[in-house]
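Re-run with default settings, no changes from the original entry. Doing this only to confirm the output is reproducible before filing.
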Amino acid sequence: MYRRFSSVIAHSIDDVFGWHERPGAIVRMMPGWQPVRVVRPTESLRDGTAVIALPGGVTWHAEHGGYDPPHRFVDTLRTSLPVKWRHVHEFTEQGPDSTRVTDRLDTNIPALPLAAMFRYRHRQLASDLAAIKRSRAWSRRRLTVAVTGSSGMVGTALTAFLDTAGHDVIRLVRRHDGRPDSRYWDPTSPDPYLLSGVDVVIHLAGAPIMGRFTQTHKRAVRDSRIEPTRRLAQLAAATPDGPEAFVCASAIGYYGPDRGETELVEQSAVGQGFLAEVVADWEAATEVAAEAGLRVVKVRTGLVQSPAGGMLKLMHRLFSTGLGGRLGDGRQWMSWIDIDDLVDIYHRAILDEELTGPVNAVAPHPVRNSTYTKTLAQTLNRPAVIPVPWAAPTALLGAEGVKEFAAADQYVLPGRLTSRSHHFRHRSLESSFRHLFGKPDPAASRTP
């Protein structure tokens, strides 16, 4: 059956088509709720093939053709599954800064999930192009950016975005993979030439914080951050043709887990507890780079919202089965950040030479847990009436894990970013959820 999805993007046809030609575009267009992974982007929209992995070891091959820049290209699906897919991408100039994007499909996939997917894709295209345009106010340089943790949830989104923004990305990987855009990184003893020719390092790598807070887990969280960060910062400082900036992931755990109504900004004192100690030492490990004259940015990240991983992935599963609800009395503050806003903050951190030191990567409006769960339930059209007792997360995380993570009560504000008039794609949780799950905008008269 034939399907058609169309919308107008407020950018030139050359910018819109050029964005699609970058290898990272296909990753940026994949909704986080879909259980798919881009194994290899296409080499060319003219005649290349993208490889996509599905659960169960199934692989899709999207073969490209019908190349007529900047107006058209086609991809046709080859798979062992009984799925028909021929996708014509059309671009029509509406004005100097306006392009109609039309997706025509010959497929046997039902219309409803396709509508959500293309609603997401068109919004993502428009918001990514707008973010790239805004970034030119900080710098128009094309940078070579080395990234650790590039295969994680944040790293996957960030490296794809940096690619579509025109930067050259080098993935620092801990296993040799033979890819031309990667370099082998041994965290305990990095190669002296690892960062040669690199303009900026973005250091994301570290063991997941969420987990049962056993001594083994806590040791992995700490050991994967402190010393590897120090060694990488030392290398950045010592490389003659190396980075001018070092951007390191951090966390709002710095402020401690039980802060109640206290408004926390970058100047607030370090808190107490395991995560506060780890984050303080983690940030201190970057000082060797700052002392050598590199610009250092420490991105104190809140609760990242993406159905591809982390807390929202778990919550999505619970709410989809009708088992979601507030945690305890639901009064604890949650300082959250949409994954695309986090990507934009990292992009600003590599370009904006006036941005240094700790930066709270959180949305401007924290919400209580009760508001969070109510908003998610409304977005997914599911109930949220049964409170989740503390025994449930305690069984998963242990008592200390619940205190440090699940029950954390932190009212964190993006002070540094607000003072610099930073633009957030999603200032409200509802806006973030509606985009992340491809839901219609109630204020719009029609959707793509």
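Residues 111-135 form the longest helix (25 residues). The longest strand covers residues 85-95.
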